[in-house]
Structure prediction request, 311 residues.
Amino acid sequence: MKAIVINQYGDKDVLQEKEIDQPAIGDNQILLENHATSINPIDWKVRAGYLKEMLDFEFPIILGWDAAGEIAEKGKNVKGFEVGDRVFARPATTREGTYAEYVAVDEELLAKMPESMSFEEAAAIPLAGLTAWQCLVGFGEIKEGDKVLIHAGSGGVGNFAIQIAKSFGAHVATTASGKNEEFVQSLGADQFINYKEEDFSEVLQDFDLVLDTMGGEVQSNSYKVLKENGKLVSIAEPPKEEEAAKYGVKAEFLWLDPKGEQLAKLADLYESGQLKPVIGETFDLSEQGVKDAHALSETHHAKGKIVIKVK
Prediction:
């Protein structure tokens, strides 16, 4: 099969197109004929070697942790899915990722795609959508009427977070640049803060939950908008315990734990019209296509998700 691999850490030029063997599957896995994948910041962070202490993979590494396609084979213990099913997943974090024509996926990480969903849309959802879900629903225990601040609402996680929060009936404020004001409002944001012109910590108060995608000063200032016993969840960097204690806030760093049943809930939101993946740009599964996609992701200014068409 065709795959894009890296044999060393470095810039986007270490990405190489190769013909390799299809992955073998275990008894509790399926072989996915991959139709689309997507780019997440973790992809180029692994490629650059930033996460090698945490993810100690041997080379060659296939990056990518979003997949959408059709089941080509299934292991003997797989009960809930059949060959030919259209499915999507955030596969386990291994060195055999999704920049490839075939991917082995554990059954518990799979969800069936709604009939109306395209493979490109499905590939855009898993990692970013599940991250947003676990921040807001798992940690945040979001409920109707909650006031929620989502930083960088036009980004990959942020745009899903706005839509998920609105589906629960929350009041949503978000930060973004001026050019993305209409975009985040179209997702359902009630309150827009242009971070280049306004200090969100002076504008907002008495919030129940903050989703921090930025870290640093943004994280530190986020405590000021929370009510006592409010919650801050970060996907950027672990919150400082003393800061959280000073403001009487529950704060946590979230590292995604993929789950197929949560992905199925996101599929339900898609079917009910409450969740729509926003695809910014699409590239082909080729050496140049993936290099260009990484370059775009590394600007931090991609709007919505960057998708790679495999088939």
